[in-house]
Specification:
- The structure is a single chain.
- Helices cover 38% and strands 15% of the residues.
- It has two domains: 3-253, Type I PLP-dependent aspartate aminotransferase-like (Major domain) (Aspartate Aminotransferase, domain 2), CATH 3.40.640; 256-388, Aspartate Aminotransferase, domain 1.
- Helix 4 (84-95) crosses helix 9 (223-237) and helix 13 (317-326) runs antiparallel to helix 14.
- It has a seven-stranded mixed beta sheet, sandwiched between helices.
- It has helices at 5-11, 38-46, 60-73, 84-95, 110-119, 135-139, 164-174, 186-189, 223-237, 243-253, 256-275, 294-300, 317-326, 373-386, and strands spanning 77-81, 101-105, 126-130, 146-152, 177-181, 199-203, 217-221, 280-284, 307-312, 331-332, 342-345, 363-367.
- It is an alpha/beta fold.
- The chain has 14 helices and twelve strands.
- The structure holds pyridoxal-5'-phosphate.
- Pyridoxal-5'-phosphate binds next to helix 4.
């Protein structure tokens, strides 16, 4: 990796002299900023999108976070919002108007799906969801009205990848904006902007914050795109990240590399162990050499990340429930990216085995956190030993 992560995370934008030599950045927990005379107040209004005037626009704590995120993602600028969902909505809405069309990966994050199907549809923006594993097939759904191609690589739960470079090059030629949700790989695992993607979005709730104590979102893009979103969706919808939350993310990001490396390496260790288990029907893991997208995963993503899904050879939902209920370390919860390992049993969304759902009832998504891999393996082993009783 050619980015100097240590420099970005500790030095970039940090002026310790100005902070009374504080090692940790201070929090500017203030709603507004005051000025000594009319002339400087007038200037502050003129520069509302660049300098502190009011915290719904610019705040020094969030500005520091924005600067570091842009450097990590390799874009000119970044914005921080109140959630990943807010970041996704602001980025997409900024690029469409009535009559436009959005081409989207088949199974994006559920609230991205709702944004397109429930909200934008009401305002005359149409969409197509299409399988993007086959790039040519995916791009065959582009229409003359297509203004945005929305990607999520890998996507949630089944971890299908898209060939970001090829799709970005195609879109550029047609004047279509590409947006990619990069939450899974974090800013360290994958650099969509370097592959030509215009706008990169993140749920900072996951790896970036990394402590299961904050909800926030990020948009990384060119200065022009960020200024456009800031001046419109950001200031009008007002879904800002508070200074306190921005500070928590800055705190969390100091250990981003350590945490992501640990979580990825535990995922690899447990992946190897799961492969030896007779209870497993199928493993969903981008860095599985047997995965048909393995070469793409290796070329696009620097590491696997700590998420993995499995389908188990279970005979009933009841048996799946027994397995999940027996696990002690893998708490049942949505989200991921903190210390704690988590499980999302898909049977939660089922009442019986015959229901139709794009995810099978015998699937569980795991997030491997920062606990010892041995402890987690013992927990899984114990659940397997008891699930048939
Ligand atoms: C969690 C998540 C989101 C939504 O982020 P919030 O911070 O929960 O609003 C979007 N995309 C992906 C891939 C996610 O995992």
């Amino acid at each position: 990796m050619d980015k100097n992560i240590s420099e970005i995370l500790f030095l970039l934008g940090e002026n310790h002299d100005e902070w009374n030599n504080a090692v940790a950045p201070p929090i500017y927990q203030t709603s507004n900023f005051c000025f000594p005379d009319v002339s400087s107040f007038r200037n502050a209004f003129r520069q509302e999108k660049e300098k502190p005037l009011y915290t719904r626009g610019v705040n020094p704590t969030t500005s520091l976070l924005r600067q570091k995120l842009a450097a990590l993602e390799g874009t000119e600028d970044a914005l921080v919002l109140s959630s990943g969902a807010a970041a996704i909505a602001a980025a997409v809405i900024n690029k469409v108007k009535q009559g436009d069309h959005v081409l989207c990966v088949q199974h994006p994050y559920s609230w991205t799906n709702t944004l397109l199907t429930k909200h934008l549809a009401r305002f005359g923006v149409s969409h197509t969801f299409a399988d993007a594993c086959d790039t040519a097939h995916f791009l065959s759904h582009v229409q003359p009205e297509t203004k945005v191609i929305y990607l999520e690589s890998p996507n949630s739960i089944t971890f299908e990848l898209q060939d970001l470079k090829t799709i970005a090059a195609f879109a550029k030629e047609k004047g279509i904006v590409t947006i990619c949700d990069n939450s899974y790989a974090s800013t360290l695992g994958q650099s969509p902007a370097a592959l030509g993607i215009d706008i990169v979005v993140h749920s900072a709730t996951k790896y970036l914050n990394g402590h299961s104590d904050t909800v926030a979102g990020v948009i990384c893009a060119s200065k022009e795109n960020i200024q456009s979103i800031l001046g419109s969706e950001f200031l009008t919808l007002g879904a800002i990240c508070s200074p306190m939350e921005a500070w928590l993310i800055l705190r969390g990001m100091r250990t981003l590399q350590l945490r992501v490396e640990r979580s990825s390496s535990t995922a690899h260790t447990i992946f190897q162990w799961l492969k030896t288990r007779s209870e497993i029907e199928k493993i969903y893991f981008p860095h599985d050499p047997k995965n048909k997208q393995y070469d793409l995963a290796r070329s696009q993503m620097h590491f696997s990340g700590g998420l993995l899904s499995v389908c188990l050879k279970a005979s009933s939902i009841q048996q799946m429930e027994k397995f999940s209920n027996t696990l002690e370390y893998f708490r049942m919860a949505v989200s991921w990216g903190g210390y704690e390992s988590l499980q999302l049993p898909v049977c939660t969304f089922y009442h019986n085995e015959n229901e139709r759902h794009h995810l099978p009832w015998n699937m569980v998504r795991f997030y491997f956190g920062l606990e010892d891999a041995d402890v987690l393996i013992r927990d899984l082993e114990n659940a397997f030993s008891q699930w048939k009783s």
